[in-house]
Amino acid sequence: MATIELLVPAAVIAGNAVPLAKRVPTLEGRVVGLLNNSKSGTRPFLDRVEELLQSAHGVSRIIRYDKKAAALPVPDEMLEAAARECDVVINGIAD
Predict the structure, then answer these.
(1) Is the pTM higher than 0.70?
(2) Rounded mean pLDDT for each run of 10 residues along the chain, 95 residues in total
């Protein structure tokens, strides 16, 4: 009789998980950062997100951040700038 190996796709939850940020009550009048992961479809996706944020949600300003490569982490300086300059940051990932 053949042996069947059973794999369980369950992961262990990290003890140092970072909690989600609290939601802002409204985007109206807020500064929103858009983080481009540099994949081919991300820029047009974020262009449309920017249009919608300005027309439908009344954001005061959009600041764009571009990673150099999708496979690289966001540089600390970019994260610090986004935290300092923005009320909300949206990370765009589109292939």
Answers:
(1) yes
(2) 85 77 92 95 94 96 95 94 96 83
